[in-house]
From TrEMBL:
Keyword Repeat belongs to the record: yes
Keywords per UniProt: ANK repeat, Repeat
Gene3D superfamilies: Ankyrin repeat-containing domain (1.25.40.20), Leucine-rich Repeat Variant (1.25.10.10)
Protein name, UniProt field: HEAT repeat domain-containing protein
Protein source organism: Streptomyces mauvecolor
Lineage: Bacteria, Bacillati, Actinomycetota, Actinomycetes, Kitasatosporales
Length: 414
């Protein structure tokens, strides 16, 4: 007797097949020949898209159903260091009180991995002294993390990030300096522990957190300064108060800080914070920052210039037009979106977009063509028609919604 079709689709990571089988009535709680539920198999494979399909099935998936080894999907996600999957399961209502064979709940398991270290725990479990295979991977949320494999076991380095997210749910609030110390152990600020740490700190919404974060601006270690800037940025970004109480203090703090900051990682957080601020003073350094040597700083600066460009600010428009010829394709693409905010009274913005129709990178060409179309300029129509039918698998699917619902139709070629 062959393997159940849903289990086979989950094993192969075939999201379309999983969706089709579930739509046809397949049970999302199906188990394989060893009693392992489909959801557990998807967790073991770090397959967030398949997990999401199982969660969205008409028949509710059992988030707490354990495999034969007694581990629930959440405990498996924690064990694997799959921080984005653990987050999805927790937010979906996974039981935080369930334990593994050694009596550890999700928090205790995450703490064990954090204290032991991924490599040491892999060696303990595998019993081998062979070299650990390491590679950078992109997780289900688009974050870069490290994957470690040894003796047939594979984990990712998200355990400390998971610990930071779980602690508040168990009523635990480590000191600011303790959380900072965990993050400092990882020199790459793009790793999951950094986003988990800064998000955890901003989530406390306490005046002391702002003060401690602001105090880091004078530290000699740029990683500490990055943490301070990012926490403050996130506090302002996620504040839901009607009067935006953090906006002006952020600008007061970030303007002089950005003027003297030399580390590009810190400048990304500072520029992002200024770009997101509503205080008009935040716009002052952005045109110059579109010429910064770090491409992420340039992209954030462009993001913050959308509003002044739409308001007719000539300096802002000049800056983003120049960025349509940037050496980095992602910056050029972002610049196309900002240029398009300009008034249609002048031909200069549309001419800048038209020049991008010949860019060597397709995404830039398509972005420019879409923006021209929305400005009722037909010069980019040929680029859009050349793409053929745009389905849900296309990277341009979301952007094309604006084209499909525009008053001007994209007609076929003559």
């Amino acid at each position: 007797m062959g393997e159940d079709p849903l289990i086979a689709a989950v094993r192969s990571g075939d999201v379309k097949a999983v969706a089709a089988l579930l739509a046809a009535g397949a049970d999302p709680n199906t188990v394989d020949g060893h009693g392992t539920p489909a959801l557990c198999l998807a967790v073991d494979a770090f397959d967030l898209p398949v997990i999401e399909e199982l969660r969205m099935a008409d028949q509710p998936v059992q988030l707490n159903r354990a495999a034969a080894d007694g581990r629930t999907p959440l405990l498996r996600a924690v064990d694997r260091g799959a921080c984005e999957i653990a987050s999805v399961l927790v937010s979906g209502g996974a039981d935080l009180g369930l334990t593994d064979a050694e009596g550890r709940n999700a928090l205790e398991l995450a703490r064990h991995w954090h204290l032991t270290g991924a490599e040491a725990e892999l060696r303990r479990r595998s019993g081998t002294s062979e070299p650990v295979a390491r590679r950078a991977v992109v997780d289900g949320w688009g974050n870069v993390c490290e994957e470690l494999s040894l003796g047939g076991l594979t984990v990712r380095n998200g355990h400390t990030a998971i610990l930071a997210e779980l602690e508040p749910r168990y009523g635990i609030a480590p000191a600011f300096e303790e959380l900072l110390g965990r993050a400092l152990a990882e020199p790459d600020v793009d790793q999951p522990v950094w986003s988990a740490t800064t998000l955890t700190l901003q989530g406390r919404r306490a005046p002391a957190v702002w003060a401690e974060a602001a105090a880091l601006r004078g530290r000699p270690n740029p990683l500490e300064r990055y943490c301070g800037a990012e926490v403050i940025r996130l506090i302002n970004l996620f504040d839901e108060s009607d009067d935006s109480p953090f906006d002006v203090p952020l600008v007061d703090l970030f303007l002089p800080w950005a003027a003297r900051e030399e580390d590009p990682r810190v400048m990304r957080a500072l520029t992002a914070g200024l770009s997101e601020a509503m205080d008009p003073r935040a716009e002052q350094p952005l045109p110059a920052l579109t010429r910064h040597h770090d491409r992420e700083v340039r992209r954030w600066a462009i993001s913050g210039l959308h509003r002044p460009v739409a308001q007719g600010n000539r300096e802002a428009l000049t800056a983003v037009v120049a960025c349509t010829q940037d050496t980095d394709a992602l910056v050029r693409e972002a610049a196309c979106g900002a240029v398009a905010q300009a008034s249609t009274d002048s031909p200069a913005p549309s001419d800048a977009l038209a020049a991008c129709l010949h860019d060597e990178v397709e995404a830039v060409r398509v972005t420019a063509a879409i923006q021209l179309f929305l400005r009722d300029d037909p010069r980019g129509d040929g680029v859009l028609r050349s793409l053929g039918p745009i389905g849900q698998d296309s990277p341009y699917y979301a952007a094309f919604h604006a084209v499909w619902y525009h008053h001007r139709a994209l007609l076929p070629a003559d």
